Amino acid sequence: PGALDGLDYKIEWSTFEAGPPLLEALGANKIDAGGTGDVPPVFAQANGNSGRIVAVQARTGANDFLLVPANSTASSIADLKGKKIAVTQGSSSHGLVLGLLDQAKLPVSDFQFQFLGPADALSAFTAGQVDAWAVWNPYATIGKNTAGAKIIADGREVTTGQSYFSAASEALADPKKSAALADFFERLARAQVWADAHPEAWVPIFAKLTKLPEDVAAASFDTSKGSYVPIDGQRIAKQQRLIDLFTAAGLVKQAPVAGDWFDARFNAQIQAGAK
């Protein structure tokens, strides 16, 4: 509370169902900045999006999950060979699936992917039209609560464990907007430290803001904890490995250089806020 008090600039908020459409809007300079998982920037960069990753959150837990119906006998992704898996194309959960397949040394061609947004995927999963659903929170918790889903895998061992804030090229080139972003990211990093330390105070606020049931908000927040950290070689290398995974799967034609899409100009502010 109070993290955005005393601003000398105005923030206009927009909501997106997933990262790919957010970065599409950002690449068109229709928004100035926005947060996503790790996979949407892979496709944004490969498609020539002019935005840049300017802030990194290193999460402490898993935020992507592979769900199956309560009556399913599957206990790993290997048990889903030949089955239908719902996933949002280009999302962090798409990265989860590829990471699990890479870990199990299984080809993508052994599985049937149904590329659906979270809302449509939930409907398909509930109706029994797909055999599994790869998704992030809060949708994973909603799936458990409303459809009796069970989790058979998560992303702790196979994903970057990173979430990003990206900024639009025009916003970064505008001195006033760039200065506002610098201030915002320091406040964001500071607010994350406070929220992680005070979940009992933050979760009711988070639930009210997102209009989620409090138990869903609590589960979602618990899997999204983690400090904002400076952009460095370690963070970039994790993203490059993810890019290479999508390239090997034939989903990205030519692997871009991850470092070209990172901009560390706000590192000092993020470090100051995360203290």
From TrEMBL:
One of its GO terms (cellular component) is membrane. SUPFAM superfamilies: Periplasmic binding protein-like II. It comes from the Bacteria. The keyword Signal applies. One of its GO terms (molecular function) is ATPase-coupled transmembrane transporter activity. Signal peptide: none annotated. The keyword DNA-binding does not apply. Coiled coil: none annotated. Keywords: Signal, Transport. Residues 2-209 form the Solute-binding protein family 3/N-terminal domain. Part of a binding-protein-dependent transport system for aliphatic sulfonates. Putative binding protein. Belongs to the bacterial solute-binding protein SsuA/TauA family. This is Putative aliphatic sulfonates-binding protein.
